[in-house]
């Protein structure tokens, strides 16, 4: 691991019967946000779960700079619907030696969450915001988040993006998140890793990432190129009208 990396993933490999995550390598610098993109089934969640050791990789190494600590939000946590958020938090925070109640209260306020509500009284987006508030309130150097802005309205998404930027602003914390919302990348990612068919297609700082694909697509230096353009150019299928039964 180099001095300027908070996470170094090297040659990560995970084999499922019908899918292989192959030789995934990338690094994340402290104080930065990395966005991970790729089509459904490309291997993003498998990568994040492997780093979090929620699945056992077949090969490869993951090194997180000391103090070794990460916080993960991978998919929806199932809570008991009758429980109040305050009750869940009281139990959860005991697991974190670095729990920061003030930080947590601030996030609840910023996300307009009422912790006297029961789980069953929350919308999908409210529950995600609650999970984020908890995940971000114990000073983990690295946050690993699988599609944290999925199902979130544009105003709340902006709030989450602001909170993410604030989280890494001290230069000691980093965030790795996957997303299908490519405007997230434009708004807050410092670097991008593109997973394609179980392998890293390209991983680089955002400007270098765009430049790489401009060159690959034969575009001029300043040609506009969005993340959607890049993904569509690489992955797009076209419907064959003649193959569809009338
Ligand atoms: N527990 C498992 N057992 C077998 N195959 C699995 C398992 N988990 C994931 N896979 C397979 O691994 C591949 C990658 O899945 P993964 O969830 O990592 O994709 P993803 O890029 O996160 O997709 P999405 O954008 O749809 O969330 C898929 O083919 C999936 O079927």
Your description of this structure?
With 246 residues, the chain is of the alpha/beta class. It folds into 2 domains: 1-69 and 141-151 and 172-235, P-loop containing nucleotide triphosphate hydrolases (Rossmann fold, 3-Layer(aba) Sandwich), CATH 3.40.50; 72-140, no CATH class. It is 33% helix and 24% strand. The chain has 8 helices and 9 strands. It has helices spanning 44-51, 85-92, 101-110, 124-135, 154-168, 182-188, 206-216, 227-235; strands at 7-16, 19-28, 33-37, 59-64, 70-74, 142-146, 174-178, 191-196, 199-205. It has a 6-stranded mixed beta sheet with strand order 5-6-7-3-8-9, with helices on both faces. Strands 2-1-4 form a 3-stranded antiparallel beta sheet, with helices on one face. Helix 3 (101-110) packs antiparallel against helix 4 (124-135). The longest helix is centred in the middle third of the chain and has 15 residues, at 154-168. It starts with 6 loop residues before the first strand and ends in an 11-residue tail after the last helix. The structure holds adenosine-5'-triphosphate (ATP). The site of adenosine-5'-triphosphate has 10 residues, from helix 1.
């Amino acid at each position: 691991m180099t001095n300027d990396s908070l996470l170094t993933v090297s040659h990560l490999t995970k084999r499922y019967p019908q899918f292989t995550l192959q030789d995934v390598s990338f690094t994340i610098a402290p104080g930065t946000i990395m966005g991970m993109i790729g089509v459904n089934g490309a291997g993003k969640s498998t990568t994040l779960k492997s780093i979090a050791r929620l699945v056992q990789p077949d090969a490869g190494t993951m090194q997180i700079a000391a103090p070794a600590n990460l916080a993960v939000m991978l998919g929806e946590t199932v809570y008991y619907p009758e429980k109040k958020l305050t009750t869940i938090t009281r139990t959860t925070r005991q697991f974190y030696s670095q729990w920061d109640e003030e930080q947590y209260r601030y996030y609840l306020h910023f996300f307009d969450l009422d912790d006297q509500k029961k789980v069953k009284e929350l919308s999908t987006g409210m529950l995600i915001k609650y999970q984020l508030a908890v995940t971000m309130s114990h000073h983990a150097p690295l946050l690993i988040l699988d599609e944290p802005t999925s199902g979130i309205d544009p105003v709340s998404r902006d709030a989450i993006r602001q909170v993410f930027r604030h989280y890494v602003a001290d230069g000691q914390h980093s965030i790795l998140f996957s997303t299908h919302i490519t405007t997230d990348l434009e708004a807050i990612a410092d670097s991008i890793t593109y997973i394609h068919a179980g392998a890293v297609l390209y991983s680089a700082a955002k400007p270098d990432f765009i430049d790489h694909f401009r060159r690959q697509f034969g575009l001029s230096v300043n040609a506009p190129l969005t993340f959607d353009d890049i993904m569509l150019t690489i992955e797009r299928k076209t419907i064959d009208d003649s193959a569809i039964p009338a």
